[in-house]
Amino acid sequence: MSLFKKFFSKEKKETLDKGLEKSSSSFLNKLSKAIVGKSKVDDEVLDDLEEILIASDVGVDTTLKIVERIEKRVAQDKYFGTDELNKILREEITTLLIESEKGGNIDSVDSLPKPYVIMVVGVNGVGKTTTIGKLAAQFKKEGKSVVLGAGDTFRAAAIDQLQIWADRVGVTLIRQNMGSDPASVAYDTVQSAVKQNADVVIIDTAGRLHNKVNLMNELSKIKRVMQKIKPDLPNEVLLVLDGSTGQNAFEQAKQFTKATEVTALAITKLDGTAKGGVVIGISDQFQIPVKYIGVGEGIDDLQMFDKVEFVDSFFK
């Protein structure tokens, strides 16, 4: 199930192909060089594959898992050739992504009481504000009413940027002065949404990681205060990660999953990097569903993550 209607148009597929072009060409070029002149998948090819996957930011643990699966298939089929490697890799990576979804839950907004509250977390600079703006625009396009909460009260720029998005999209923004209590902003936002009978609430939070204890306390407080209005809030905690940072994104995911219960991931800026493999690794390692990926600067270039289409574009 998803917050948006499940529909993968030709235009979206073209955008996805283009957005993953750097990752795809980098990966496939390396793979082609590794198997040139070889007809059989042997230990040398598997070692090369391991290096290529790690270099593509899939991550060591996930890479070892993928290579182990390939090894098993090679052992079962002694005629396994290099010409089949591409196809088998696609299958194993798709299976891995499907398995990782079991670790999380993506609910439909229509099946839950209104408002559906999304708390957005992530360090500064990952594209958090832009992701919130694009989500608001897409919900609005779906005919849903949206209220935004400017909970990152430590940066005036974050509040102002969110105001620009709210004005652009035509949705309500609840804000207070810089330095205000983020939990107070969250409370006001949810309360306003309840009064308006709004469908969706998206609340921004501060992106500081220098003190994990403070971060944990702050996010816990925001949750507790919202739960005074409705005990099951937030419905979703969305962690935004910058895909172009590769292994850094793994570290951020590690810190935030320790600080709060993350239920879904958004991985941004994949169009400007060859590190698209990070989507595979993070999805597998944290067993949290990747819900959205950013593959361009346009409002519609924040896409619902489709595992099969992603792998297809990655192997274009």
UniProtKB/TrEMBL annotation:
Catalytic activity: GTP + H2O = GDP + phosphate + H(+)
SRP54-type proteins GTP-binding domain residues: 289-302
Source domain of life: Bacteria
Key words of the record: Cell membrane, Cytoplasm, GTP-binding, Hydrolase, Membrane, Nucleotide-binding, Receptor
Residues involved in GTP binding: 122-129, 204-208, 268-271
Membrane topology annotation: Peripheral membrane protein
Locations listed in the record: Cell membrane; Cytoplasm
Family annotation (InterPro entries): AAA+_ATPase, P-loop_NTPase, Signal_recog_particl_SRP54_hlx, SR_rcpt_FtsY, SRP/SRP_N, SRP54_GTPase_dom, SRP54_N_sf
Main enzyme class: hydrolase
Main location: membrane
Record EC number: 3.6.5.4
Gene3D superfamilies in UniProt: P-loop containing nucleotide triphosphate hydrolases (3.40.50.300), Signal recognition particle SRP54, nucleotide-binding domain (1.20.120.140)
The protein's assembly and partners: Part of the signal recognition particle protein translocation system, which is composed of SRP and FtsY.
Function: Involved in targeting and insertion of nascent membrane proteins into the cytoplasmic membrane. Acts as a receptor for the complex formed by the signal recognition particle (SRP) and the ribosome-nascent chain (RNC).
Cross-referenced HAMAP family: FtsY
Family designation: Belongs to the GTP-binding SRP family. FtsY subfamily.
Protein name (record): Signal recognition particle receptor FtsY
Phylogenetic classification of the source organism: Bacteria, Pseudomonadati, Bacteroidota, Flavobacteriia, Flavobacteriales
Gene designation: ftsY
